[in-house]
Amino acid sequence: MTPASSAKAPFQNKLLPLMLLLPQLLITLVFFYWPSVQAVQQSLYIEDPFGLSSEFAGLANFTALFKDARYVDAFLRSLFFSAAVAGISLSLSLLLAVCADRVVRGATAYKTLLLLPYAIAPALAGITWMFVVHPSIGIVGRAFIAMGIEWNYLLNGNQAMGLVIFAAAWKQISYNFIFFLAGLQSIPQSLMEAAAIDGAGPAKRFRDIVFPLLSPTAFFLLVVNIVYAFFETFGVIHAVTSGGPSKSTEILVYKVYSDGVVGLDIGGSAAQSVILMVIVIALTFVQFRYVERKVHY
Amino acid sequence: MVENRPLATFFAHLVLIIGVVIVTFPILFTLLASTYDSSDVASGKVGLLPGGMGLENYWLALTAGARTTAQNPAAQMLLNSAIMAVTIAVGKIIISLLSAYAVVYFRFPGRMLCFWAIFLTLMLPVEVRILPTYKVIADLRMLDSYAGLTIPLIASATATLLFRQFFMTVPPELVEAAKIDGAGPLKFFRDILLPLSVTNIAALFVILFIYGWNQYLWPLLITTSGDMDTVVIGMKKMIGGDDAQTDWGIVMATTVLAMLPPIAVIVIMQRWFVKGLVDQEK
């Protein structure tokens, strides 16, 4: 990840490059680093609800969080949510990519249509699926009720969770599909032909050739999907369930918002922010470790 | 395809057709519902054929907004979204081009520090610093303004990395030739590097436009006044009430209008879009 260091500098100016970097650096300092430092600092203090005084509290905000059953629940729920979103989205996209790699006729039409969810905002992905499964207006929701299922995601926490997981996974299908298809198309045709001549059928070829060659792509996508499910699904949750019914869809990124912006618990919300920060840093680190390996391979 | 297996090809088509139905279903349903009268939508009469209210719903959505919830006309919200998306996309491209140029073509003290400072912002999404960022925007008096909606999102580690990657593949002979011909650094940038970057810029623009259009948490934090609502936020506000009272026809039409621009961008610029997405992760 380091800029090429061996090349001799084409231009000798010392001031000009700093001027060129200035806008970006200014924005990162003011809107990224300064608030992040503040979040870390606030997480170590306890502030009274009126913001009049604050007191150094060490790690008290953090220990309080992990003693709070609601936070631990939200934490475990986020893990489940991310695993479900990533699992569903990755497996559906892989299946679709394998099929799209095989067909010739209509391939472009399939591809264009499968790209559509990428265009939809997470919040709108949630809202449009909500329309579809709405107990009174939705075509699928009404069908569920007609079949005798007690269907109401506004009251039933598991159904609400199912809805947000599905909408979030749906939105990510396009992205995964593009990368899986690109991965599949980069597998040398000669390899597959050789295996076929040796008598390997499609299933065996998939297991022994395609899957191992695709695994770096799959691993990279897994990390991207987990990051997506942890952070970018805020819109789905906020627009569809607002964390409800009775907190059953409250994931970490929603809780940090509702405790901080709605509940105005500065220290507690900051501590939650810091925990999320650690999670992003860990995931980004894993992702770039992998990219480095791909380069050397 | 290695060998001809008609049955496998048939199944591949079957899976793709089911996949396409699932993927397009909520979009199609919303599109169909947007052509029905609100009371028909509320009582679940939306079928697989369009209703007759399409033009009225879209006209009302654009000019008046939902009648039941005091919302803005969609035209204003679409304009806000367009301003936000275009400013963010163009802004990110400009400052990332400049940063990448500085990092690749100059050697100066603090170069690595600058590079890492930009790179590490990848690890600080808005979601992990909500309250303090809000406070900075409030202190700078940027709440409820286009500046507040856009400027803080203009920093871009991924775009900077992408351009840096691309500049490093530009043959060094080009710089040497330009220097021999007497071109200074700014002239080289404008007359040689920029024209070479056009496809990268187009690809990135598609991704960033969609990113800007689809922002949610940021406008939710930064704007409170209704006439600053982006269309995605406005949508959420429209469905916040009692279901039986919701002006569904207008809600559906507004949803379609909210989805249309990013869908159009993806369909029209599909090749660039795929390139932009795949390049970004290299």
User: Proportion of β residues of chain B?
Assistant: under 5%
CATH architecture of the domain at 82-222 in chain B: Orthogonal Bundle
Spatial separation of the terminal alpha carbons of chain B = 27 Å
Report the average pLDDT across residues of chain A.
87
State the helicity of chain B in percent bands: 55-70%
The class by helix and strand makeup of chain B works out as mainly alpha
* CATH topology annotation of the domain at 82-222 in chain B: MetI-like fold
The gross shape of chain B turns out to be globular
**CATH class assignment of the largest domain in chain A:** Mainly Alpha
Calculate Rg of chain B over CA atoms.
Answer: 24 Å
Oligomeric organization of the protein chains: heterodimer
Pattern of helices and strands of chain A: HEEHHHHHHHHHHH
The strand line-up of the biggest sheet of chain A is 1-2
Q: Which chains make the largest contact? A: A-B, 103 and 110 residues
The computed structural class of chain A is mainly alpha
CATH superfamily of the largest domain in chain A: MetI-like
Give the second-level CATH assignment, the architecture of the largest domain in chain A.
Orthogonal Bundle
Overall residue-averaged pLDDT value of chain B: 87
What is the CATH C level class of the domain at 82-222 in chain B, in words?
Mainly Alpha
CATH fold descriptor of the largest domain in chain A: MetI-like fold
- Major sheet characteristics of chain B: none
